[in-house]
Amino acid sequence: MSVLIFLIPITLFLGLVGVMAFLWSLKSKQYDDLEGSSNRILFDDEDEDEDDESHTKPHSKHEK
Predict the structure, then answer these.
(1) Which of 6, 15, 50, 56 has its CA 20 to 30 A from that of 23?
(2) Considering its fold, how many domains does the chain have in total?
(3) Domain membership flag for residue 50
(4) Are 8 and 15 in contact (CB under 8 A)?
């Protein structure tokens, strides 16, 4: 039972650290755009498609 004297304050401290980390994430707007990242992964932009075409052509240093 004497071990509880150490475990309870450690548990409370770690819980407080967790709550503070969660509040920091809310304050720094980590949860504002939940759908934006998933849409960027699934749907390509048209501008990126044009850039990709230029990367598929081989470039040599001695082109005329």
Answers:
(1) 6
(2) 1
(3) no
(4) no
